[in-house]
Amino acid sequence: MIVTLLGPEREFYTRVRLPLSVMLCIMTTYNRTKQRWRVGMRRKVGIGATAWIVGGAGLFIGAVASWLVSQGNPGNMGLCVACFLRDITGFFAGVATGQAATAYIRPEIIGIIIGAVAAAVLTREFRPRGGSATILRFVLGFIFMVSALIFLGCTVRAWLRLAGGDLNAIWGILGIVAGVIVGIVILKQGYSLGRSKKVSGILGWALPALAIVLLVFAGLAAFDSRPTFTTQTTQGAFATGDSPPVVFLKEDGAIATVLRPDGAIITAEGSVVAATGEVLASAESVSNARPQPGGRRAPLAIALIAGLLIGVVAQRTRFCSIGGIRDAILVRRYDLLFGVAGLLIGAAVVNMVLGQFRLGFENQPVAHMDILGNFVAMMVASVAAMMLGGCPFRQIIVGAEGDFDGFAAVVGMLTGAGFAHWALLASSAKGLAPLAWPAIGVMVVILAAIAFVSRRNGAISRG
Questions:
Q1: According to the model, what pLDDT value does residue 46 have?
Q2: Which residue of 88, 259, 329, 458 shows the fewest CB atoms closer than 10 Å?
């Protein structure tokens, strides 16, 4: 029987064919190399006693993340390491990088670091260490961030987006799995960044010290005393899709105050015009305006406490958003995978209870519908995370435990965020960034080069 695809069906098939073909090719390559590699340790198969603990941790983190959306955080972005670090970069460098819409010190990041370091110190797991290809870890963190901003989310937010009903996240999650498989193939070729060594205690406290500095600036901003060189997105601000965008505040669902451009006024019809009479944004454009991500935020105290709790839970359970997929494929161990499942279930349940679940592809918060872009961007991000030894969330936790290499990865992500916005590589709800594909090509070449020069006799996984 011959089936003819017409109209939307043919368009959908055309859009999904390439990502699925790439996924199939990667899995075929992995299966062929699997038989030629022998793991240099005893394989443990199945589910351990810690699986339920990690699963509970995932449930908790997912539930809290969705609850933070109800408290003011952007939709499907109750927790996103990439987005939150990007906003922090915007606070300090927003003028230079063009991040007026994404500039705010996210208290959740501060809380996660402080919570994790407190748990590590109390359990005597705080150990200053580093020296494991620190510069390369900075580069890998940089690449992860740029790729994540092309997708619009980290490996944690991909699952949270799906839990909120955003079906575009499916392509990103397939990209995560593909990236993990590619990362496993790289590990099997002997890739290793070397073992970390004991370092000065000062270096071990680098990330906790950064958290304290951020807390001070967050406090200053909360009392309208932030330094003039910083930028902060106005809470509750909306922006139109015009160029340049019109930024305004709403009151009772209608435009009330124009923040930018200066001197613009609101007409009776609801459009925005300049003092010269030039129309800057039509009434339709104003009605279709979207919230600025940096302007959506939970109260500082609530976000900080939520971060503290998440940091403690993540440190004690070794939660990692890609480690579960890696272990399930590589060593048939599923404990960490329970954490990812818990994250998805916990977030989805809370979203449904709070009325935040909206199933579909279109008009999802801070998301675009480019199937191939979503897939490839997250595949590249996941390869970088695999080469780091864990997802960005995990890098923050190990950095809080005294790992200077984890700190270097976090600094790389902060730098990558600023660069992505400055170089117009960050995507938006309108679609994929114009220069996304050239950037992805360059990052693939760099990852291949790092994988090649870092081949050794054995592989070390730090997830």
A1: 67
A2: 458
410: nearest Cα among 399, 425, 422:
399
* Alpha carbons 232 and 239: distance in angstroms, whole number: 15
pLDDT digits (tens, 9 = 90+) for 169-189: 999 999 999 999 999 999 999
Residues in the chain: 463
Q: Which long-range contacts (CB under 8 A, 24 or more apart) does 67-70 make?
A: 67/306, 67/350, 67/354, 68/108, 68/298, 68/302, 68/303, 68/306, 69/164, 69/351, 69/354, 69/356, 70/354, 70/356
What DSSP line would sit under 89-138, residue for residue? HHHHHHHHHT-TTS----HHHHHHHHHHHHHHHHTT----EE-SSHHHHH
Phi-psi region of 431 (alpha: psi -120 to 50; beta: other; left: phi over 0): left
Q: Give the span between the Cα atoms of 311 and 369, in whole angstroms.
A: 32
Measured CA to CA, the distance from residue 303 to residue 114 in angstroms comes to: 13
* DSSP H helical ranges for 123-232: 134-151, 157-163, 169-188, 201-204, 206-222
Q: How far is CA 90 from the centre of its chain?
A: 15
Quote the tokens at residue 244: 């340049």
Residues contacting 60, CB < 8 A, separation 6+: 309, 310, 313, 342, 346
The pTM of this model reads 0.88
How confident is the model at residue 7, as a pLDDT? 56
CB atoms within 10 A of CB 427: 23
Q: Sketch the domain layout of the chain as residue ranges.
A: 44-235+292-453, 238-290
Q: Provide the token pair at 111.
A: 């809380």
Do residues 112 and 399 touch, judged by C-beta distance below 8 A?
no
Which amino acid would we find at residue 116?
A
Distance CA 91, CA 99 (A): 8
CA angle 334, 138, 427 (to 5 degrees): 80
Cα–Cα distance measured from residue 376 to residue 22, given in angstroms and rounded to the nearest whole number: 9
Instruction: Say whether 281 sits in a helix, a strand or coil.
Output: strand
**DSSP letter, residue 192:** -
